[in-house]
Design brief:
18 strands; metal-binding; 2-C-methyl-D-erythritol 4-phosphate cytidylyltransferase activity; alpha/beta; about 30% helix; 12 helices; 4-stranded mixed beta sheet; Spore Coat Polysaccharide Biosynthesis Protein SpsA, Chain A; about 30% strand; elongated; about 400 residues; 5-stranded mixed beta sheet; 2 domains; 60s Ribosomal Protein L30, Chain: A
Length: about 400
C-alpha cells in the first residue's frame, strides 16, 4: 500500500474517579504495567507511525517526560502535552503540536489499553483508502431501554445502534479544521467531525478494546489478557567474530566498541531468542523453519526484520503478544546503562511490554571464557482471532 505518515494521539488526562484509584486511570496498573504503557506499546507498533502525542495531567508530566526521553531514540517523534479539562480540550492541545507532513491522525483513549495494533492499522488503512473519518465499532447485544426515574418508558431498536470505540481515525487536515471550528463540546471526535460536516464510516471493532472505567472493568481486562494465553521459550547462541568491521547487534540496537557475533544474519541473540519464543508460543515453528539459512534474502538481515516477520505470522494466525522477557548470558556488554532503552525499543517493535535482564556463567564454559553470547527468552501470547 502507498506509504502514508500516521500520528497517534493518546489521551491519558482522565481522572478515573469511577475506577476508585487515587490517581488518573491511565496510570492504574494492569499486569504490572500502567494502562498508558500498554497503549503506548501497541500504538508504537502501528505501521507508518511518525508521531506519538500523549496528553497527560500536569501532575504526571514529569513521570511521562522520563519515558518520552527513552522513546525518542526509536525514530518516532514523541510529544507530551498537558491535557485539558475535557477530552476535546486534550485533543486540541495535542493537535497543536502535530508535525507537518502527517496524513492520518488516530485518536485513542489510553483506558482502552488492550486494543490491538492490528486495529490501529485497520483504522488507518480505512482512512487512507476512503479519505473520511473512521471509527471501530461493535454491534449492541443487549436490549436497550429508555427510562425516566425508576420507570422504563420504551425499548430502543438496537438494530441501528453500535458501540463506538477508539482509535478513531481522520485525515489530518479534516480533524484539525474540525477542532478549530468546534463551538460545542462533543464526547468523541467522530461526532465533532460530523458536526463540522465531515463523513464518518465504521470498521469492525474488538471486544478486547473495552474502555477500562471501573474496578470490574479492570478485572475483565485481566481476564482478557489471560484468555487463550500460551507461553513459549526460545534461546540463541553465537560466537564472537574475528571480523573487526562487524559491530555487535543486540536487541535491534547497535553496540559500538564491542565485538560482533558470527551468524548468517546479524547474530542478534536477544532478537533471535525472542523470535523463537514468540513462534513457539503460537505453535509456528522456530526461526530456522521460517527464516532459514537456505534463504539468501536473510543473509546479514537485522533482528528487527525477523521480529517484524514473526509478528506478521502471529497476526495471520490470530495471535497477539502479551509480554516478553529475555535474558542475555555473557560477560559483555553491560546492559544496565541501556536496559530501559532496550526494553522500550523492543516493546515498540513487538507492541507489548518487554523485560530485559543479564547474567554471567561465573567464568564457566564457552560463555564464561568470553567466546560468545547467548540469550534465553520467554513469551506470552494470546489468541485473538484471525486477521482479515
Amino acid at each position: 500500500m502507498t506509504p502514508r505518515a500516521v500520528a497517534v494521539v493518546l489521551l491519558a488526562a482522565g481522572r478515573g474517579e469511577r475506577l476508585g484509584a487515587n490517581q488518573p486511570k491511565a496510570f492504574v496498573e494492569l499486569a504490572g504495567k500502567s494502562l498508558l504503557e500498554h497503549s503506548i506499546y501497541r500504538a508504537l507498533a502501528t505501521e507508518n507511525l511518525r508521531q506519538l502525542i500523549i496528553a497527560v495531567p500536569e501532575s504526571h508530566l514529569t513521570q511521562i517526560l522520563e519515558l518520552e526521553n527513552q522513546l525518542d531514540s526509536q525514530g518516532v517523534d514523541i510529544r507530551v502535552v498537558v491535557g485539558g479539562a475535557t477530552r476535546q480540550q486534550s485533543v486540541s492541545e495535542a493537535l497543536a503540536v502535530l508535525a507537518g507532513g502527517i496524513d492520518i491522525v488516530l485518536v485513542h483513549d489510553s483506558a482502552r489499553a488492550l486494543t490491538s495494533t492490528n486495529l490501529f492499522n485497520r483504522v488507518a488503512d480505512a482512512v487512507f483508502e476512503n479519505q473520511i473519518g473512521v471509527i471501530p465499532a461493535l454491534a449492541v447485544a443487549d436490549t436497550i431501554k429508555k427510562y425516566r426515574g425508576d420507570l422504563v418508558e420504551e425499548t430502543i431498536d438496537r438494530a441501528e445502534l453500535i458501540r463506538a470505540q477508539t482509535p478513531q481515525g481522520f485525515p489530518a487536515e479534516l480533524i484539525v479544521k474540525a477542532h478549530v471550528a468546534a463551538d460545542a463540546d462533543f464526547t468523541d471526535d467522530a461526532s465533532l467531525v460530523q458536526a463540522f460536516g465531515g463523513t464518518v464510516m465504521m470498521v469492525p471493532g474488538e471486544e478486547v478494546a473495552m474502555k477500562i472505567t471501573t474496578a470490574e472493568d479492570l478485572e475483565t481486562a485481566q481476564g482478557y489478557l489471560l484468555s487463550g494465553a500460551r507461553t513459549g521459550i526460545g534461546s540463541d547462541l553465537h560466537r564472537f567474530t574475528d571480523d573487526a568491521t562487524k559491530t555487535l547487534q543486540l536487541g535491534c540496537l547497535e553496540w559500538p566498541g564491542h565485538r560482533g557475533l558470527e551468524g548468517h544474519s546479524d547474530g542478534d541473540v536477544i532478537a533471535h531468542s525472542v523470535v523463537d519464543a514468540l513462534l513457539a508460543a503460537a505453535g509456528l515453528g522456530d526461526i530456522g523453519s521460517n527464516f532459514g539459512v537456505d534463504r539468501p534474502e536473510f543473509a546479514g538481515a537485522s533482528g528487527e526484520v525477523f521480529l517484524r516477520g514473526t509478528l506478521e505470522l502471529l497476526n495471520k494466525h490470530g495471535f497477539e503478544p502479551v509480554n516478553v522477557s529475555v535474558q542475555l548470558i555473557g560477560n559483555e556488554p553491560k546492559l544496565s546503562p541501556r536496559r530501559l532503552e532496550l526494553e522500550t525499543h523492543l516493546g515498540s517493535i513487538i507492541g507489548a511490554p518487554v523485560s530485559v535482564s543479564a547474567t554471567t556463567t561465573d567464568g564457566l564454559g564457552f560463555l564464561g571464557n568470553d567466546e560468545g553470547l547467548a540469550a534465553i527468552a520467554t513469551s506470552l501470547v494470546r489468541k485473538v482471532g484471525f486477521s482479515s
